Amino acid sequence: MARTAEFRLTTGDREELERLRRRPGTTRKVCLRAEIILAAADGKGVRESARELKTTTPTVMLWKERYNNGGLGAVLADAPRPGRPRQVTAEKVAEVVARTTREKPVGATHWSTRTLAPVVGLSHTQVHRIWRAHGLKPHREETFKVSTDPDFLAKLEDVVGLYLNPPEKAVVFSVDEKSQIQALDRTQPGLPMKKGRAGTKTHDYKRHGTTTLFAALNVATGEVIAECMDQHRHDEFLLFLKQLDRQSPRGLDLEVIVDNYATHKHAHVQSWLKTHPRVHLHFTPTSASWLNLVERLFAELTDKAIRRGVFTSVKALEEAITSYLAERNRQPRPYTWTATVEAILAKVGRAQSALTAVKDSSVPLH
Predict the structure, then answer these.
(1) What whole-number distance in Å separates Cα of residue 120 and Cα of residue 128?
(2) Cα–Cα 20 to 30 A to 105, which of 75, 87, 281, 344?
C-alpha cells in the first residue's frame, strides 16, 4: 500500500491561515479549510480532525491533498465555475458581517435582510446569502447566566464529585421543586393530527389552578420519588425530605443535591437535619441550576406530559404527572453526567472573558 505524502506547512502559510481563521470576514468554508490544514500540520490524523471539526473524513483528505499538490493558493481559490462572475466583493461581504455583528439599526434591536440591504447597497437576497454563509441569524438570541457565587469552585467540585465519584454506602439524589404548574384547559376542542396536517389547539385557555411537584431523582438508577403539593414553602420541603428518608434503604446515607432556594436553608429544615445525620444537603452554586440533574427530568416531563395536555382540574393535572412518572419508573434510566470540573471551569472562563471584553469595549461583541 502506498504511503501518504508527508505533510509540511511553511511558516508563512501558517501565519496566513491563522489570520484567515481569526478574521471576521472569512467565510465558514474557508475557515474550515484553514482549520483542516492547521490540524494536519499539528500532527492530527484524518479521523481525529474530522471529529473535532465536525466534518467528514473525505473532506479532510481532499483539502490536505490539495494543499500538498498546490499549496495555499489551491486551498483558498475555488476552481472556476460557469455562469456570471461574482457581483459582491470581499470588502462588501466584510461590511455586511461587521454591520450585522457590531451595529444596530435606528429604532430597532436587530437587523433584518430588508433593513440592512439599502444601508450596504445590496439586495435583501444578497444579504441573506452572506448571512447564511457566515452562520449569522440576527433574529435569534440565546439566554445565559454566569454564576457570581464566591464559593462557585467549592460547590462545583462538590456536586460534580457526587455525579462522577459517588460515595460508597450512600444514595445520591437530585432534588428540586417544579412550582406553579398550571392546569390549563382549552376553550374549544382541538382537531386531531391527520395525514398532511398537524394537530391543532386554540391559542386561549382556561386556568383551573396550579400544583407544585417535588421530585427526587436517584442519580445512580434513574428512579424518581415524587409528590405533588399545593405550595412550596419550607414546610412542604421538609415533608418531602421526610418522605425521602422513609422510602430510602436504611444503613445508607442520603446525599441530596438542591439549589439555593431559601426554603432549603430554613431554620426548621436545618434543625431536622441535625436530628437525621444520614441526610446531607449539597447546594449548587447560585445561578447554576443546570448542575442539578433533576432539571433534565422536569424538561422531559413538561415536553411529554404537560405542555400539550388539556386539564380540566388540578387533580387531572396531578394524575397526568403521576402517570408519566410511574411509567418512567417501570424502566428507569439514569442520566449520564460527563462534564468534568476542568471542562466546566474552562467554559465558564471563556464566558467571563467574553463578558469582560464587552464591558471594556463600547462595541457589542457577538
Answers:
(1) 13
(2) 87
Grid coordinates in use for 100?
Answer: 450585522
224-229 vs 253-258, strand pairing mode: unpaired
Q: Cα 312 to the chain's mean position, in Å?
A: 34
User: Would you say the pTM of this structure is higher than 0.85?
Assistant: no
Q: Does domain 154-189+203-341 have CATH number 3.30.420.10?
A: yes
Beta bridge pairs of residue 206: 185
**Would you kindly state where each structural domain of the chain is located, as residue ranges?**
11-76, 90-134, 154-189+203-341
For residues 90 and 62, the answer to whether their CB atoms sit within 8 Å is no
pLDDT digits (tens, 9 = 90+) for 23-78: 777 788 888 888 898 888 888 888 988 888 889 999 888 888 888 887 877 777 66
Rounded CA separation 270/302 (Å): 31
Alpha helices in 87-194 (DSSP H): 90-102, 113-120, 124-134, 152-164
Tens digit of each residue's pLDDT (9 = 90 or more) over 79-110: 555 566 667 788 888 899 989 988 899 889 99
Number of residues in the chain: 366
Distance CA 283, CA 175 (A): 10
Contacts of 158 (CB under 8 A, 6+ apart): 282
Please give the grid coordinates belonging to residue 193.
393530527
C-alpha cell at 76: 483558498
